[in-house]
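Put briefly, the fold is written as integer tokens. The lines below illustrate.
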Amino acid sequence: MCRPVTSSSARVAGVLLAAAALGPAGCNSGPRLYPVAGKVAIKGKGSVKDLAGYIIQFQSTTDPADLPGGTVAEDGTFTLSTRVGGKEVPGIKEGAYRARLMQPPVEGAAPPPLVVPRRYTKFETADLQYTVKPGPNEITIEVERNQ
């Protein structure tokens, strides 16, 4: 036997339906991120394997605190990600960036000599600039090798 719907239970059901319908639209899932993948190439002699473990870090030209990054694999490839809410999320925001390379962290020992000139380790001197647009982005980073 069905119970008749009272006005208070109808109101509760209506509120729950409205909340369910609006819930996903009202959720903030974070900034809009676009996939960025690429490859590091060494100009001249030398193997890109020597850059394995190096960190590629981007810095937004409009928000210097926005620092997405990724790690160089043995074949020179990398994928960039952004920290959102304490988690690494693939992709970065649309916009203009400058980039740098950082040596892999070494615990308990002095870092090995740099494979690339020191200028590539600072945003101000690396002269590596890229623009991320909506959709997938492929980037090639060409660097010189230390002699």
Notes: Residues 2-26 have pLDDT under 50 and may be disordered. The first helix runs from residue 7 to 26. Strands lie at 36-43, 55-60, 69-71, 77-79, 81-84, 87-90, 95-102, 129-132, 137-144. Helices lie at 7-26, 123-126.
